[in-house]
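Retry 2 of 3 after timeout on previous attempt. Resubmitting structure tokens to design endpoint.
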């Protein structure tokens, strides 16, 4: 059985979701806003068999983290501008709740706009040795978050 506080939080979340969803959807799907970043993130879930770097776990981690942070930064900018402060707070709280510490820990080295997100094809230095399963888990999380963010926008 749910406690009263948890029930109230979920009710507020649903009300805020219904209130802000149209604007959040617009931010994610408008070509002049974040649609290109969303498409890049959505297209990164599978490896490119023609890309020799696609088998490199570190390269894949970097690719996913940089695309995700680029998409989130774009959303922050346009949600605050187009949807308002309260919508921005709602988005941030839901993002924090969904991503937890996994993205903050594993993507901390890869911030969009930093040198860490520039792609040099000749980089062979391993940041995370033998972390294939961690990488696959992160890929699944990023894919799930992308899908969830997309459906939140609907």
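Retry 2 succeeded. Sequence:
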């Amino acid at each position: 059985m749910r406690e009263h506080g948890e029930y109230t939080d979920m009710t507020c979340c649903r009300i805020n979701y219904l209130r802000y969803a149209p604007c959040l959807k617009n931010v994610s799907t408008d070509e002049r806003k974040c649609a290109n970043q969303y498409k890049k993130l959505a297209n990164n879930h599978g490896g490119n068999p023609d890309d020799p770097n696609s088998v490199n776990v570190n390269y894949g981690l970097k690719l996913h983290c940089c695309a995700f942070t680029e998409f989130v930064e774009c959303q922050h900018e346009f949600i605050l501008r187009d949807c308002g402060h309260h919508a921005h707070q709602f988005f941030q709280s839901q993002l924090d709740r969904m991503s937890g510490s996994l993205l903050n820990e594993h993507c901390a080295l890869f911030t969009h706009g930093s040198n860490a997100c520039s792609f040099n094809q000749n980089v062979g230095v391993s940041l995370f040795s033998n972390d294939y399963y961690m990488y696959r888990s992160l890929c699944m999380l990023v894919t799930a978050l992308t899908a969830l963010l997309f459906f939140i926008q609907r």
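Attempt log closed. Confidence is low (pLDDT under 50) at residues 121-133.
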